[in-house]
Amino acid sequence: MSRQLLTLWLLINLQLAFLITALLKIYFKLFPVRKRVANTLLILESLPIENAGYQYRAAKWIPHFATQKWQLDIWTIIASRKSYDYLTQPENISRYLIHTMWLRLRQIVASRHYSCVIVRRELLQYNDYGKCFMEQLLSVIHPTVILDIDDNIAEAKREPRAIQSWFGKVNREDGSKFMNSLSYYHSFIVGTPHLKSYVQSLYPSKADNNFCFIPTCVDYDIHPPRTYNQETSKIIFGWIGGVGNLAYLDFVIPALNEIANGNAIELQILSGADFVPKTTAIFPIINLKWSLDNEVDYIKSWDIGLMPLPQSKLANGKSGFKLLQYMGLGLVSVANDVGINGEIVQSGSNGFLVTEHATWYEVLKEVLAKKADWPSLGKAARKSIEEKYTFHANAQKYIQFISSR
Predict the structure, then answer these.
(1) Spacing of C-alpha 212 from chain mean position
(2) Residue 1 confidence (pLDDT) above 70
(3) 353 near 345, Cβ under 8 Å?
(4) Domain residues for 311?
(5) What pTM did the predictor assign?
(6) Comparing C-alpha atoms, which of 250, 238, 248 is closest to residue 278?
(7) DSSP tag of 69
């Protein structure tokens, strides 16, 4: 099918979806759902099963809810990572939008008998058309619907933005879709306190008791921690993260070059794509393919975990998950003092922070000078994560919040 025909087909599907959704909204306003199954929770996910967000903010909660007699189900749009990556390519995006829109509409209607529904990030990814038409329908069916966010998605989407194209105007594209969608949610599970402040800055009427801070937890307490060998001849720095965050590594390459002048070092990157630095690196960079099965073994093989971040609104909304992964496995970690990182790390005690008063090179030099302390720093890091950032540490708070909706 040509691009022009695909665009026309998408336009027809959008208009039809708007109409059907409007009719369904009228129906559920006239005939509200009277019977829901107690202690049933549905998470509407947008990402594939292999995605870390799917696993750590949804799937890994299932056994914890089960112990409290709660049934937790997860419905995503495209389960396979391979299919997801293929359909979200620019040349296939129209097919993706059509498929996900109709599937999500069916899921929303089918969700009506669950006692609680959580939306992860967005109902419709990459689809900003229709002025939040599906959020409107879901909020009618589930007036107490909850949004779970661990990033400032509005910043990632560069909202607000002007709509210029005729296609966008015809299909009521919303240049502030995520920001506007927040008004349709009753409650919020936020990955950082900053995200709560962000939502309340837009909607001051959202009360404090409608927010619950649940970090992106790790289950690394079931794994033995990393052990340090003082005789290590080569220092391995490591970074784990999504493809969209690879560019942050460029902030630390110059500092690592300086460190490499007097030390044998290596940088290992665990992600879904290869990192190619903008600045020439004088040390080896090893790109590793991430999977849920290999991440623990790779992280435990590193000496120092890195989390470079800029000072920005987008970075301030991040959940510090890299730090939780490193520290949960007993690694010495170094991160920019941005957003929640300053709450996770007590610099010098369980990790190190790069602040405005010191460069990455200066902090990394300090870390290497304290090599004898790495075992105790790693133990302190793991203990702080076990106390605050594991599933066990947060399960009761999460379930109580859901039960009170």
Answers:
(1) 16
(2) no
(3) yes
(4) 220-388
(5) 0.91
(6) 250
(7) T
